[in-house]
Amino acid sequence: MEESYAQALSLLRQGLNDSNASFYDGQWEAIDTLVTRRGRLLLVQRTGWGKSVVYFIATKLLRRKHSERGLSLLISPLLSLMRNQLEMAGRLGLRAATIHSGNTEEWSAVKAALANDNVDLLLVSPERLANVEFQSSILPSIASRVLLFIVDEAHCISDWGHDFRPDYRRITRVIQLLPRNVPLLATTATANDRVVEDVRGQLGSDVQVMRGSLARRTLQLQNVILPSQAERLAWLAQYLPQLPGSGIIYTLTVADAERVARWLQQRGLNVQAYHADLDNDMREALEKQLLNNEVKALVATVALGMGFDKPDLGFVVHFQRPASVVHYYQQIGRAGRGIDNAVIVLLGGEEDDEIADYFIRTAFPPQQYTDMVLNALRRAPNGLSRTELQQAINLSNTQIDKVLRLLGSESPSPILQTGSRYYLAPVSYSVDWQRVEKLTALRRAEQEEMRRYMQSETCLMEFLQKALNDPFAERCGRCAPCQGKLIVPAQISQSVVLEAVRFLRHTDLILKPRQRWPAKDGLPIAQGTTVIPPNLRAEEGRALSQWGDAGWGALVREGKYRTGRYSDELVDGVVQMVARWNPQPMPKWITCVPSLRHPELVPDFARRLADRLNLRFVPCVAKKKESRPQKEMQNSFHQVRNLEDVFEVRPFNGIEQPVFLVDDVVDSGWTLTIVAYLLRRSGSGLVFPVALAKQVLRGSE
Question: Using CA atoms, how far apart are residues 694 and 552, in angstroms rounded to an integer?
């Protein structure tokens, strides 16, 4: 044992590049449990404690013990986390490889290295673990050689946890395929008692729980309630330069990450937006900029979350309130790992509950969605592809994906996948909707707990520890309530707030033209092709605001649902937007999308806009019949089919000139696409869409 400890300590110092480094309490004990006793362990330790050190060193020792043969299999949930893990593994001399959706060009080389026993550590995502090809071509070839099975961020296994991912459920099936003497390590920092018991129950009753204090003594926590986005933008502009080092500003949506980054850039601050819509190369480049202190901050969604490791990260600011305490603890845990003091500020806003409600509503597919998918498969003995499922049922690709993942994670699963097709399995199945209702109620309770945290006048770190059932919870003495004073000032300049309001009212959203139909079959308008002819497409358009935001969005909502008329102030806003935009060739007339439900709302606005722009208003687009509201259509196929043969264009003298096509609120963009298509087909000039607001709330990453 002394020899193993000496080897482990040497590896620790090598990995940390610190000749004086020593193990934290519990680290060596965890390594010894895995290597010597071949135990199964659930490690619940604070963020930054060094859980990855345990499995990297254990891997190295196990490889030596087995004459450099075999490998560790690590299930890791995020690409940013994998990149950090690969870097740390390399410092320890481990030959690590990964298989995920972003490195398909490397798969052949990885498979060859696995076949030749040249991989010490294989990292895969839970989604890749569930992939049919991985299960058939890779997993069987390595299962007998697995020396250590590792589940990082193990709280994702539990649907009671804050970040449940159905594909994590499949991990338990893989564990059952491994020999019983294969050691197992599951790690998390964000599991309360309920989640610990659920994870332990799924991994096996022989799993030992090793728990430490979750207190982060290097963090100074503070809450600042600033309801409007303009106020929070002003706070960031004033105080971001004063925060120590470089850090992360978290937002709940991609749109807000982009917008906050633009505002701070305009204020001369070196920040960049980071989210899942960026390609892997760009995200990796941004991570390196932050790691090298080349930016003051990344304005990020949860895509930059679990496992991102920058020891000297000096601050974390939340632009909006996360949905739960455990989300919050996970994200602030990026800071203060290798420094004595990091500043943590939570800014609370008026849109927090609306965004949290959206994510709670969409977390689990409703029963009707599950029934729709199962019934569609029941009617298709030859199976259905995802595209065919979208055509068969009125659900979005995201909704269908959630249903398929949920059903695929059940055991036994009621669906089978062969290649790209899904089939109904001959098993009796019913969803435990009572459990889903309990989980939804839990999410509501977590949301309320986060509201209480926002208002807390007692120790903030102790609040977080108690929420995570930490038996070692105690006052930190460092947060704003403990000190009785603010860590960072909360007072904001009203002149900067006004500048932020002007910014919000001048950040037009681009409406990108649709270039393809969702299908060539089943849609007569597509005429047997998926390509919308270039001469029949809309041009790039503009939306004045994001629906409901603190700029123009609130006025749009008021006009649509309260007053029944869009204000002259909105007309002024669009006039200014057109001047900023300056489309070429400049349109010579204006028309609008008609509505039978609100026949005067948009035409009245378009008429007044035409007067202000000194253009001709021609209501040449008519609605022949009522259609179901587009917001009820969940995917592109049904959105287009819902609008086919609904509109008609009445040609007139002058239609050949370029035109502004006006609508109020845009979501999918198919209404503007189809009306522009009909206008162009009727001989109009170029069509430039104009909208008052765009719906942008969608996935957070």
Answer: 11
